[in-house]
Structure formats: structure tokens, C-alpha cells
């Protein structure tokens, strides 16, 4: 296919879970690389040493302030990528690296880790630990449509991506408390239980029809708040769920009865 | 968009007498899930099953007809069915998940499919999403206050609860009926319902509720290709009795009226929230 976009996976301080999640699209991953995107940078999968120019940078992991290479590379990523995506809880919100206090063999001085948004502007955030394989796929397909699609496709892709761009502007801190601050305290919760299903560490239970958060267990991945139907809900996109799911399945070579 | 996108609308009730015996109205949800389970259209369904306290539902993954039957009827309080949406594909290992829910829960299902940030393995496993008409919901303690304080019926003595014709009714095991005007229940509604702009579960595959149809029957909207596929097979297999919606009273006009009333009232509420304070407002979840 002509006009593929270029994508890189930039690895900061993360566990590679986000990359595994990307790979968990299985044959879908090949479809993405065959038809829509060239993987121009990825420490694990591509033999490229220096961060090149690219359309979309998927950044996994937070930045260790004491690691010069990481700090340089995140700045280079911003300079060389058109769209920077904070992929997963660590890049977006710090996630478990927020709790680091250094002292680990053999770099005991490595103690402060910040989400990439504390050092550079981020365009899109995909929260959770790790983000669902399907959500990465959807963002890849929409990013392709945004950069290479028809006017109509560009409009859809922009509408789809807007809430994830708004999350990037919302800040670099997230935790289960957001459900209290921005949903319950705001009189918006209706007790559907989506947050409890979202939490990767099962820190949320439903008590009296409302989420109760075990804050000692919360890893600050941002999943619960982002997945809540009362954090954002764009009627123009979600009401078209049937057509969009079909379009994405079509783009991924599935369905087509 | 008052009634959402739909392909067809009909008045129906379950053909199975056992299901109808304890169903709220036409037994649509139980019958359709039972059919889908038998035919392998779903491996299981997330439903509001019986909880520890009377009339307090707990979400369960029903994988048998008996479990579906145990969950029949409406409990007018929160059942966080979405809580199990990922669990159903993991611990229960279901490939084809059914889920029933209120309009807001259907919104959560579709958001989870389109933005599956923390919903790995969920998007392609939703095999049948059934929505139920919903004006508002009550927290459990709110329902308790309505039933015990206003209707003077112990929760454990209540046999059925029903909302219709402007009244909240409780039927007891001994055959008594206690009714209060629906107006008296408004203060117990959960606040989050007041920003909801959907009455008839626009985003479900199939949505249903009593409004519009005669007593003992339900109005059924068939909304998606998937919903149409399942519904038409169930009809062909004789699982439902049906009537043309145009031939029944009060019919679609009442559904449209109630939906319009709800949406208009709640739109005003969402707007009023924007200037709730002094030069400050509350969040609008839709922007």
C-alpha cells in the first residue's frame, strides 16, 4: 500500500508490557506493518540505533532523570516525531515507577522517574497498564486515517483521537482518586462498575454502587478514570460504534461478510 | 435521536410460561438470553443476580438457564454489571459474552469496545448487549427508604416492585399492594442519573421495556445488525409472541413522550451544571 506512515516504539523505563500488548494484535500486527505503517525504530524488533524522523512515536515507560541517555532520547523523540503518543501508564502518568526510591544495584542513584509529559509536550495518551492490544490497534488505524485518509476519514479520526488528546492536556498525574474527584464528587457516577473491571491490580471494588479504591494498591496507571463512561463520552463517535467497528475490522482484514 | 437508531420495533412477550411466571413484564431479557445460550450465540451472560440482602442485586455471569431464571425481574437499584465485563472473558473464559444493562451501562459497553484502553479481550467478545429502558435508578438505601418508610413494607416481604402509570408499587407475599406517587421517590434518585441523555438504551443490540406495550408485554427495539440477526432467529424459532407496535396501546407515542421528557429535563440539568457555582461550574462529561 502506498503512503504508509512511519512509526517508532521508543523505550524509556518500562517493562516492555506495552510493546508486548502491541504484539498481542497477532496477525493484526503484521497487517499494520504490511499495509499502514513502517516500523522505523524499535529497540526490541528493529536494528536501528538512533531515533529517526517519524510520523508517530509510541513511547513506553517513564524518564529517569538521572539517566542522561533517556533524557536526551525523549527530547530527540519530540523533535523528530510529528505525533508523540504516551503509550501506557508509565509514559502517561508514571505508573509504578512513581514509587521508585533508587538504591537498586547497579545504578543506585537512579531514583526519580517522571512521565514523559513532564519533559515534553505529548499529543496523545493511551492509559492503562498495559493498554489493551485493541486500543493500540485502534489508535494506529486512526493515526493512519488522520495522516493519509480521505477528508471524511480525517474527520472521524480527529474526532476519535480528540478525547485521548484531551487526556494528554489534562496532566501527568492519575490515580484511582480521580474517580472520586472528577466523577463521584462531581455528581456523575451511576455505579456501572466499569472502573472495577478496568483496574489491572484489582484495587477497586464496588461498595453501595460506588467505587471504593484501595489506595495502597493503586499503581497510578490512569485506566479506571479513562475507561469510565462519565470521564469522557463523545456521542458523535461512540454512537457510530457499529460502523466504526466494522471499518476497523475491515482495515484489519477481518469481517466483510 | 430520542429513540436512537433502530431497525424495527415490536411488542412482544416470552413464549415460555416458566419465564413469564416471575418476569417483570414480557420476560424479553431472560428469554432472549436463554435462547442465545441454547443456540451457542453466547457462552454466558452478565445479569443482575440475587444478592445477600433482599432486592439488592449482585452482578453474576450466568452460564445456565437456571442462573438466568434466578435473575428474572427488575430490582430498582444499582447492579454494577460492567464490573464483570473483563472477568467474563478471563476467569470465566467466555468467548461470546451477553450483557444486560441500563442505557448508561450500554454506553460503557460501547466505549469499552471503541476505546478499550483497559479492556483487553473485550471488544470482539460482546456477542449480545441487551439494554433496558431506564428513567433513573436508586441507591439501595434509597430503595429501602421508599419501600420500608414510604410504602411501609419490609424489603424481605416484598414480592414484586413496579413503576408505571405514575406510581411506585410494591406487591407483598400476602397479596397486599402498597403504592405511592412516583413524585415521592424523586428525591431518592441517584444524582448521576440526572445527566443521562438516553431513555431507551440507544446503544444496545436489542433494547426493551414495558412502556408502550400492554401489561405483561414489552416493547422491543432491534438496533444493530447483530441484534437483528439474533432477534429474527429467536422469532423464527418461536421463542416470542409478538404484536405489531402500531396495534397496541399506548404504543410508541408514549415511549417517545417519556424519552423526550427525560432527555429535555436532563439536558437542562447538564446546562445548569455549567454555572452551578459563582463563576464556576461542574463537569460536563460529554465534552
TrEMBL record, chain B:
- All copies of the Coenzyme F420 hydrogenase/dehydrogenase beta subunit N-terminal domain together span 9-86
Instruction: Tell whether Magnesium is among the UniProt keywords.
Output: no
Entry's EC annotation: 1.12.98.1
Its required cofactor(s), as named, are:
FAD
Sequence ranges assigned to domain Coenzyme F420 hydrogenase/dehydrogenase beta subunit C-terminal in this UniProt record: 95-246
Transport as a keyword? no
User: Which keywords label this protein?
Assistant: Iron, Iron-sulfur, Metal-binding, Oxidoreductase
Recall the GO molecular function terms of this protein's record.
Answer: coenzyme F420 hydrogenase activity; flavin adenine dinucleotide binding; iron-sulfur cluster binding; nickel cation binding; oxidoreductase activity, acting on CH or CH2 groups, with an iron-sulfur protein as acceptor
Which Pfam families does the entry mention?
FrhB_FdhB_C, FrhB_FdhB_N
Q: Which PANTHER family match?
A: 7-HYDROXYMETHYL CHLOROPHYLL A REDUCTASE, CHLOROPLASTIC, FORMATE DEHYDROGENASE SUBUNIT BETA
| Protein's name in the database | Coenzyme F420 hydrogenase subunit beta
Name of the coding gene:
frhB
Amino acid at each position: 500500500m502506498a503512503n504508509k506512515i512511519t512509526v517508532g516504539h521508543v523505550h524509556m523505563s518500562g517493562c516492555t508490557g506495552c510493546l508486548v500488548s502491541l504484539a498481542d494484535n497477532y496477525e493484526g500486527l503484521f497487517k499494520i506493518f504490511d499495509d499502514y505503517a513502517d516500523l522505523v525504530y524499535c529497540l526490541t524488533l528493529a536494528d536501528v540505533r538512533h531515533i529517526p524522523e517519524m510520523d508517530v512515536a509510541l513511547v513506553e515507560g517513564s524518564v529517569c532523570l538521572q539517566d542522561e541517555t533517556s533524557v536526551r532520547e525523549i527530547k530527540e523523540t519530540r523533535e523528530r516525531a510529528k505525533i508523540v503518543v504516551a503509550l501506557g501508564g508509565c509514559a502517561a502518568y508514571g505508573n509504578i515507577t512513581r514509587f521508585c526510591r533508587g538504591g537498586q544495584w547497579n545504578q543506585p542513584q537512579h531514583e526519580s522517574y517522571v512521565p514523559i509529559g513532564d519533559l515534553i509536550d505529548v499529543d496523545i495518551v493511551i492509559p492503562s497498564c498495559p493498554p489493551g492490544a485493541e486500543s493500540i490497534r485502534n489508535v494506529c488505524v486512526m493515526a493512519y486515517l488522520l495522516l493519509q485518509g480521505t477528508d471524511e476519514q480525517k474527520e472521524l479520526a480527529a474526532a476519535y483521537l480528540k478525547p485521548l488528546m484531551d487526556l494528554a492536556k489534562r496532566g501527568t498525574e492519575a490515580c484511582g482518586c480521580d474517580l472520586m474527584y472528577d466523577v463521584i464528587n462531581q455528581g456523575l457516577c451511576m455505579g456501572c462498575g466499569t472502573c472495577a473491571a478496568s483496574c489491572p491490580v484489582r484495587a477497586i471494588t464496588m461498595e453501595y454502587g460506588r467505587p471504593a479504591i484501595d489506595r495502597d494498591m493503586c499503581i497510578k496507571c490512569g485506566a479506571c478514570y479513562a475507561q469510565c463512561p462519565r470521564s469522557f463520552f463523545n456521542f458523535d463517535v461512540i454512537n457510530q460504534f457499529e460502523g466504526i467497528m466494522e471499518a476497523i475490522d475491515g482495515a484489519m482484514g477481518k469481517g466483510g461478510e | 435521536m430520542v429513540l436512537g437508531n433502530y431497525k424495527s420495533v415490536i411488542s412482544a412477550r416470552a413464549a415460555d410460561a416458566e419465564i413469564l411466571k416471575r418476569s417483570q413484564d414480557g420476560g424479553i431479557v431472560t428469554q432472549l438470553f436463554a435462547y442465545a445460550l441454547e443456540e451457542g450465540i453466547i457462552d454466558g451472560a452478565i445479569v443482575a443476580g440475587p444478592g445477600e440482602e433482599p432486592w439488592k442485586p449482585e452482578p453474576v455471569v450466568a452460564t445456565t438457564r437456571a442462573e438466568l431464571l434466578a435473575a428474572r425481574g427488575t430490582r430498582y437499584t444499582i447492579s454494577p454489571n460492567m464490573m464483570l465485563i473483563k472477568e467474563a472473558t478471563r476467569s470465566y473464559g467466555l468467548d461470546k459474552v451477553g450483557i444486560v444493562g441500563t442505557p448508561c451501562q450500554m454506553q460503557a459497553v460501547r466505549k469499552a469496545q471503541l476505546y478499550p484502553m483497559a479492556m483487553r479481550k473485550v471488544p470482539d467478545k460482546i456477542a449480545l448487549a441487551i439494554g433496558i429502558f431506564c428513567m433513573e435508578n436508586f441507591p439501595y438505601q434509597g430503595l429501602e427508604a421508599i419501600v420500608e418508610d414510604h410504602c411501609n413494607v419490609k424489603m424481605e416481604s416484598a414480592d414484586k416492585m413496579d413503576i408505571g402509570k405514575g406510581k411506585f408499587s410494591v406487591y407483598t407475599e400476602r397479596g397486599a399492594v402498597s403504592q405511592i406517587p412516583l413524585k415521592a421517590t424523586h428525591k431518592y434518585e441517584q444524582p448521576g442519573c440526572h445527566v443521562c441523555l438516553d431513555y431507551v438504551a440507544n446503544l444496545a443490540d436489542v433494547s426493551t421495556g414495558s412502556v408502550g406495550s400492554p401489561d405483561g408485554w414489552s416493547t422491543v427495539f432491534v438496533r444493530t445488525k447483530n441484534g437483528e440477526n439474533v432477534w429474527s432467529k429467536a422469532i423464527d424459532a418461536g421463542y416470542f409472541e409478538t404484536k405489531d407496535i402500531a396495534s397496541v396501546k399506548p404504543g410508541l407515542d408514549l415511549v417517545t413522550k417519556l424519552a423526550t421528557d427525560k432527555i429535555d429535563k436532563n439536558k437542562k440539568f447538564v446546562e445548569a451544571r455549567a454555572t452551578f457555582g459563582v463563576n464556576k461550574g461542574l463537569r460536563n462529561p460529554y465534552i
